[in-house]
Each structure stands twice: as C-alpha cells, then as structure tokens.
Amino acid sequence: MGGVEVKGKKKKLIPVIIVSALMIILLMLMTPGDICIVTSTSGFISSTDHFYAANLFLPVKIPVLFGKPDLDELEAETETLLTGVRDRVLRYDPDAFCGEYASMEDCFFIIDRYVYYFRTNDVEHFYRLDTETGEIKQCKFSGYDSFAGHLTSRDRFKEVSHNYVVMVSIRSEGLIDHYPKLKDAIEQTDGEFYCRYMYCAGDRIFFDMGNKIYEYLPDSNRTKRIASVAPAETVERIIVR
C-alpha cells in the first residue's frame, strides 16, 4: 500500500513540476538585459521606430513598453559632442573631412583617446588622431563598404555639389583598426557583413549580420549572439543602459 501512495504522490507532482518549469522559462524569456535595440520599419509615407531589450539569458529581444530612450535627445547630444571633436581635429589637420551634407557621426569616431576621421584629399586612407600627443596616423581601409561585403571600387567618396558623401563607415573602420582581431571575428561569423551594420555603445561593440545581432568580446576575441531582428527591420542604434 505504501508503494502505491508514493507513486500517487509522484504523479501529482508531475503537473506542478511542469508548470514550475514553464514559469521559469517564461520568466527567463521576459527578463531584459542592459542592451536596448532600436529598429525601424519603412512604410509608404514614413518609418516607424521600435524599441527592444535584449534578453538577459537567451538571444531574443523583448519589446520595451516603458522607459524608451529619447532618440532626438541622444542624437543632439552626439552631434554637440562630435562638433567639439571636429573643431579640435581641424586645429591639427585642416584637411579633415566634415562635409556640409554629412552628419558628424559620418565624419568622426571617438574611441579611448583617439579620434578617427577622413581627409578630403585622400580617398585611399583614413586617419587617427591621438588627442593626448597630437600624433596623426594614416590607416588602411578594411575593405568593407556600404553596399557589398568587400570593396571593389577604389573610390571611397562621391562628390556632390562640392561636398562628399562617405561610402564607408568611419565607426567600423575605427573599431577594426583599434581591435586588430575584430575583422577575423566578423569573418568567422556566418553571414555577409556591411560596414554600416556596426555599433558602439560605450566600450561595447556590436554588429548586425544576416538579421542577427552579435556582441564582440575583445578580451576573449569571440562573438556572442544577443538577439535577432525581422528581415523588414533595420537596426538604427544600440544603447547600453
């Protein structure tokens, strides 16, 4: 009789265990991390922004309902910061590219004590200014551009009304120069990489490849998938909160 009672108790525990396991999985799926992903989808007239938090445990994204970042404020802060950076770079290098029709984010990228930028009179290289010493270093392009996985054209700029539209990303070029193993880590990831699909938030590096978002971990030289986006979504910005 005792054995029958134990079996009966075990059977009663099975639904409890299943429900508990499902609740744990649900809680894991709904637990946000510190990474906010901003995407957009285009309609006939305008585009719509979407805000997600990368899950803390699994490579999925969760819609952000409250506490969405103010993108206009972030862009204004970035432009103000980079305008000051532009003025400082121009004191060292008057040929630095800062086109009238280009945003400051297309022209300058800051990492540690370095500022990366283009020169209007050199389409074969980009440059790095050491803000502590004033030293300027000429850098080679990585070979990535905005339209294909690897660059085939020699021209990095297109002249438009005496201005230049940059065809490569100074942010991606700067990160690849600063982290020499980053390019190898990207190429070991399955998919095709485009230069504008790289993001930097503080000292953390992310890139978007085949609708999957990865974080590059320089200390271990590896990548970690953090989320996926729908094919119709374009990743606009990644913010670490």
Question: Would you mind describing this structure in some detail?
Answer:
- The protein has 241 residues and is an alpha+beta fold.
- It has a domain at 70-178.
- 29% of the residues lie in helices and 35% in strands.
- The protein is built from 5 helices and 14 strands.
- The strands form 4 sheets. It has a 4-stranded antiparallel beta sheet with strand order 3-2-1-14, with no helix packed on it. A 4-stranded antiparallel beta sheet has the order 4-5-6-7, with helices on both faces.
- A hairpin with a 2-residue loop joins strand 11 (204-209) and strand 12 (212-217).
- The protein is elongated.
- Residues 147-155 have low confidence and may be disordered.
**Helical proportion?**
25-40%
The tally of helices reads: 5
The N- and C-terminal alpha carbons lie at a distance of 59 Å
Strand order of the largest sheet: 3-2-1-14
Shape: elongated
Mean pLDDT: 83
Beta fraction: 35-45%
Low-confidence stretches: 147-155
Q: How can the largest sheet be summarized? A: 4 strands, antiparallel
